[in-house]
UniProtKB/TrEMBL annotation:
Top-level lineage group: Bacteria
Domain Phosphoribosyltransferase: 137-235
Protein species of origin: [Empedobacter] haloabium
Pfam families: Pribosyltran (PF00156)
CDD domains listed in its UniProt record: PRTases_typeI (cd06223)
The protein's name in its UniProt record: ComF family protein
Similarity remark: Belongs to the ComF/GntX family.
InterPro entries per the UniProt record, alphabetical: ComF/GntX_DNA_util-trans, PRTase-like, PRTase_dom
Length: 241
């Protein structure tokens, strides 16, 4: 039996622990945890994925109406709250790459209903600067994008965009400094790969949205007709700086 088949067969025989509560089972999340933390969440703005007031559904929030972002839509699987925020940190800083496959699976579920006829031509993971990539050893956005692309049958263009400047971590900055921190950070080497196409941006967390805003603006300047964000977790308003 080949190595891959042997491991697949072994996985069906040996239970694993739920990533959140440790309960034994064959899925990365046990049914109770999935239902409690990954079930139907709040209604969200279709543009920025901010929670909407009760009863509102499918309409842009007031902020997006007043000042439309460069991106056209955002799909978020969960809110960036306990205990799911721990999984994000374990992926990003602990190298728990198996978490990326779970994030992609939950994002694909959220995407199927939302995408309808607006399927991107390509997925573009938010790039890391070379120094940070060398330090971390992987790009968590790319690790999510690869299985997500397979689940949605959309190609992943890992080098569609490049980060041309090192920046401070957005999570360490106040909102007033985030826009300046992300200015002129991204470049698109080949306009032909973007022009006239719907591009999907993939990232692990969306907080203020400045990173995604800047990358979407660059893609639009290079001719993208539509940009959709695919983020595993959306930071609730009360957790933003």
């Amino acid at each position: 039996m080949g190595g891959g088949l042997w491991r697949a067969g072994l996985a069906t025989l040996l239970p694993c622990g739920c990533m959140l509560c440790g309960a034994l089972g064959r899925d990365p999340l046990c049914p109770p945890c999935r239902a409690q933390f990954c079930g139907t969440g709040p209604g969200r703005c279709p543009v920025c994925a901010e929670p909407l007031p009760d009863g509102a559904k499918g309409v842009p929030c007031g902020r997006c109406v007043q000042r439309r972002p460069a991106y056209d839509a955002t799909i978020a699987a969960v809110s960036y709250e306990m205990p799911l925020d721990r999984l994000v940190l374990e992926l990003k800083f602990g190298g728990r790459l198996a978490h990326a496959r779970l994030f992609a699976s939950l994002l694909a579920e959220a995407s199927h209903a939302a995408l309808l006829d607006e399927r991107p031509a390509l997925l573009c993971p938010v790039p890391l600067a070379p120094g940070r990539l060398a330090e971390r050893g992987f790009n968590q956005a790319l690790e999510i994008a690869r299985p997500l692309g397979k689940l949605l049958t959309i190609g992943v263009a890992s080098r569609l965009a490049q980060r041309v400047q090192e920046t401070s971590a957005q999570s360490r900055l106040r909102s007033a400094a985030r826009r300046a921190n992300m200015a002129h950070v991204f470049a698109v080497p080949e306009r032909a790969a973007v022009a006239g196409r719907h591009i999907g941006i993939v990232d692990d967390v969306m907080s203020s949205g400045q990173t995604l805003q800047e990358l979407a603006a660059v893609l639009k300047r290079h001719g993208a007709t539509r940009v959709t964000n695919f983020v595993f977790a959306r930071t609730p308003p009360h957790r933003k700086h």
